[in-house]
Amino acid sequence: MTDRREITLKINGTEYTINVEARRTLVDAIREECGQTGTHIGCEHGVCGACTVLVNGNPVRSCLMFAVQAEGQSIRTVEGLQQGEQLHPLQESFMKHHALQCGFCTPGFLMLAVGVLEKNPDLTDEELSDLLSSNLCRCTGYENIMKAVRAGADGMK
Amino acid sequence: MKPASFAYHAPKSVDEAVSLLDELAPQDGRILAGGQSLVATMAFRMARPSHLIDINGIEELAKLSADHGVVRIGACVRHCAFDSDALTGATGALLRKVVRNIAHLPIRTRGTFCGSVANADPASEWCCVMAALDGVAVLRSPRGTRRVPAAELYQGVMATSMAEDELLIAAELPMLADDTRTGFIEFSRRQGDFAIAMALVTYRLEGTVIVEPRVAIGGAETYPRRISESETVLQGRAPCEATFVAAAEAAAVAIDPMEDINNTARYRRNLVRDLTQKALELAA
């Protein structure tokens, strides 16, 4: 039994009309059907946060949503952060503060932080630590990610 | 892994959803709300529903309201809705404290209150809230609407008295009196993990003594419930350390703790004692 359907996903303002099975997760559709491979897939069951994207401005795990559920909603991925040649302040901040080593988790951390900071740039250290605990990084030990997000928040104000 | 194939249905009304569930439940049709538990179990192929009935497009289920002393939480109200000033009073304040313990923010933006209630995980914070406040599950089926109090809803680990063709359309909680004191605390080894145990307490003061005490324990037993032995200790006594210690001891003795590879029954009992006392101190 295969339930396929044609849907249109709006990613970073661009519309992609694709044909997917109902079981296709949003992250698979973003990567495979829409070719936007900046969003990474880690655990595929909602634990690691590598696939975090913004749906209607809110950070979500795109492995725990089906692509068919995202039709008509505004999706933002890491590809949408850079404006022309200009990196997003948070991307600059991640570079400056060495907030990545292998970089696998970085797109998820960026989208998580952007989604929250756009609404509330004045997070306390405790709130920031609580927020960043939702994504896994196996390289940095989180300290530099904390520093980068804190500095990036100032750049976004 | 990837979820197995299923047929997708996106009803636009509660009636349509109920009729689809009636037709498809016998063929392993399931409701998809926030999907933060269901889709993960589908990825593991522990769940392989043949049909998913996605209720996210049903507008009336997204309503959160508070009037006539009742907070009514529609089936699609997300966890993050409670992390705001939308609900006032003691019940609103309690829900704001509790919600921050649920998983992580990107889970809270999708997961729903009612989804947690229907999933009936022993470590669900909302199930503990439902038990503590004697919440009511509003169930709709082709036979009509049935209202089930929390004490009759939970039957075991992820087991409820809901029939397979019943759709949980809303959960209802009482608006606690404004002077109600509330305390909630849970313990897990890492931030955002499933709690090994949690304690939720509420009470009011009449003069210098405790009245209307509620003590609920979650995570420790197969389902959350009020612990009357502990409430009896609190009733009519002053909110002092001796009272809290006695009430915490009563809770630790009364429970029948689950055991797993990391947590013995004795460990959970000790944890419940500590958490109950801390919750009472937080409420004081």
From TrEMBL, chain A:
- Any idea which UniProt keywords this protein has? 2Fe-2S, Iron, Iron-sulfur, Metal-binding, Oxidoreductase
* Provenance organism: Undibacter mobilis
Which GO molecular-function terms appear in the entry? 2 iron, 2 sulfur cluster binding; metal ion binding; oxidoreductase activity
Which PROSITE patterns would you find in this protein's record?
Answer: 2FE2S_FER_1, 2FE2S_FER_2
Q: Which parts of the sequence belong to the 2Fe-2S ferredoxin-type domain?
A: 5-81
Q: What is the name listed in the Swiss-Prot or TrEMBL entry for this protein?
A: (2Fe-2S)-binding protein
- Coiled-coil intervals: none
TrEMBL record, chain B:
Q: Which SUPFAM superfamilies match?
A: CO dehydrogenase flavoprotein C-terminal domain-like (SSF55447), FAD-binding/transporter-associated domain-like (SSF56176)
Domain FAD-binding PCMH-type: from-to ranges: 1-178
Q: Which UniProt keywords apply?
A: FAD, Flavoprotein, Oxidoreductase
Presence of keyword Hydrolase: no
Record-level Gene Ontology MF annotations: FAD binding; oxidoreductase activity
Q: Which Pfam families match?
A: CO_deh_flav_C, FAD_binding_5
Q: Looking at the record's lineage, which domain of life comes first?
A: Bacteria
InterPro entries attached here? Answer: CO_DH_flav_C, CO_DH_flav_C_dom_sf, Diverse_Substr_Oxidored, FAD-bd_PCMH, FAD-bd_PCMH-like_sf, FAD-bd_PCMH_sub1, FAD-bd_PCMH_sub2, Mopterin_DH_FAD-bd
Q: Does the record bear Flavoprotein in its keywords?
A: yes
Q: What is this protein called?
A: Xanthine dehydrogenase family protein subunit M
Q: What is the taxonomic lineage of the source species? A: Bacteria, Pseudomonadati, Pseudomonadota, Alphaproteobacteria, Hyphomicrobiales
